[in-house]
Design goal:
It is a single chain. The chain contains 1 helix and 11 strands. By secondary structure, it is mainly beta. The chain has one domain (about 50-180). A hairpin with a 2-residue loop joins strand 10 and strand 11. The longest helix is centred in the N-terminal third of the chain and has 8 residues, at about 20-25.
Length: about 180
């Protein structure tokens, strides 16, 4: 299992001070502001007049036998969905969400088949330690998120389910259907 720990900076003191724009700011006060970050929102694709909708459905069973399902309707190209699991993790008597990501790129090869790049992932919170004590003298836990997921490229036959992963933790299946309007 691959676990990536991300820890956002908690104060300005934790940010790096040797970035190129900060060095330029010392030499040129007009350059004190960093360049704007590129937009993370993708522009909508130009849809062809003969475009067709596709239903992309992923279903997985976990080790406890619970079935989970995500489904999106898209045209050929990119899709992305982020959502939270129904049951959050309790940390410090607070509900901390488990984030589910479902994204991919569909390329239609012919009317019966397509190639699908798929990412199914989740960000699950875990306790990393206790810091100080709260008002009730109970320790307050700090937490981070662990990234887990499946990344795969497969050829699908529209309308035919495909099992793309099976192990002791469960099973993941995929169904892509062409929706004729």
């Amino acid at each position: 299992m691959l676990c990536t720990i991300t820890c956002p900076a908690t104060s300005l003191d934790a940010l790096p001070t040797n970035t190129p724009w900060q060095k330029r700011a010392i030499q040129d006060p007009q350059a004190a502001q960093p360049a704007p970050a590129p937009s993370t929102v993708s522009q909508p694709a130009v849809i062809k007049a003969d475009a067709v909708n596709y239903i992309v459905r992923v279903q997985w069973k976990d080790a406890q036998g619970t079935t989970n399902l995500l489904q999106v309707v898209t045209v050929e190209g990119d899709f992305k969905m982020n959502t939270a699991k129904r049951h959050a993790v309790k940390i410090n008597n607070s509900d901390v969400p488990v984030i589910i990501t479902f994204s991919g790129h569909l390329t239609v090869l012919n009317p019966e088949k397509g190639q699908l790049y798929l990412l199914l992932g989740k960000k699950e919170p875990f306790v990393t330690g206790a810091i100080g004590a709260g008002r009730t003298n109970a320790p307050v836990s700090s937490y981070q998120y662990c990234d887990m997921g499946l990344n795969s490229t497969v050829v699908v036959t529209f309308g035919k389910p495909l099992v793309i992963q099976t192990d002791e933790n469960g099973e993941v299946s995929l169904l892509v259907q062409r929706e004729d309007n």
